Fold this sequence. Notes:
By secondary structure, the chain is of the alpha+beta class. Helix content is 36%, strand content 29%. The protein contains 10 helices and 20 strands. An 8-stranded mixed β-sheet has the order 6-5-14-15-16-13-17-20, with helices on both faces. Strands 8-2-1-12-19-18 form a 6-stranded mixed β-sheet. Strands 3-7-4 form a 3-stranded antiparallel β-sheet. Helix 1 (11-22) packs parallel to helix 7. The two termini are 39 Å apart. The mean pLDDT is 95.
Amino acid sequence: xxxxxxxxxxxxxxxxxxxxxxxxxxxxxxxxxxxxxxxxxxxxxxxxxxxxxxxxxxxxxxxxxxxxxxxxxxxxxxxxxxxxxxxxxxxxxxxxxxxxxxxxxxxxxxxxxxxxxxxxxxxxxxxxxxxxxxxxxxxxxxxxxxxxxxxxxxxxxxxxxxxxxxxxxxxxxxxxxxxxxxxxxxxxxxxxxxxxxxxxxxxxxxxxxxxxxxxxxxxxxxxxxxxxxxxxxxxxxxxxxxxxxxxxxxxxxxxxxxxxxxxxxxxxxxxxxxxxxxxxxxxxxxxxxxxxxxxxxxxxxxxxxxxxxxxxxxxxxxxxxxxxxxxxxxxxxxxxxxxxxxxxxxxxxxxxxxxxxxxxxxxxxxxxxxxxxxxxx
Length: 377
């Protein structure tokens, strides 16, 4: 008998499944994809999320397979103007971990299967939902036909285009931003090693992060979506703005995206809850989205345990809804600040703005505060 149904087998759904299984809760994770995501999009794991991942015993392996970024540097016109060390943000995890998303999903899926080899059902598409106040029943279509699955509680962790959110009738108003980005992975050719680098230039920001295996990710802010992005275009933009040469022929990932945000009008209803991108979609700039979903799952755990054990849970569910929606709103505000910092500026404005950043970064207390905000502490 299943206690909890989780719709969505990405990083957030897999993590919640393992948390629940460790507490003796019977879980079924329904994932519409036949296999794991092969694209390396989300790469940054922040200290609070590493502490959460430690609860299911995967933090150490992820750290061993990633690159701990222990500081960020700000650069303009070839000169470093500020540095932000992360040493003071966490005693246990004084860094942001850069690890490819496929690796993260591989580690999380293996942990789920260690706890229950049959917990994950792939190629399963949810088509209907009914909550009778005592059990939640989901209609599911798989390669073998149609079926239904019932549980005490159901969670939608099925991404920005969430089916569960639609079935619940929950709205998530969309906000569009004038920010568009082109990003790609190339062999390391910069002098920054394991540091993150932000290039604050008049044409717009360029962000750069190390990845395992001698690879570095480059993200360039554009004024409009690229028509037909290619590695040569990205390499040319990076060279012009940063003076770093990239080998376009050795590009291993290329992607472009425009920024929008959504925040669900509620994250809990009856015997169901939404977490991760199903509840809140924010700008990838700053790398908070996946981390926010893991923290949603961690906060939801005691609520689900109360439901499964037949304990009073209505107040706890309302508290979860209110606190996690506030956390998502705060993360979105931080993402908006990050994007504003990277927009184009004429040199006459850029120079004094960057000088102000350099002066502020030289104040230890201010630098530490910004580092904590950047790392979601």
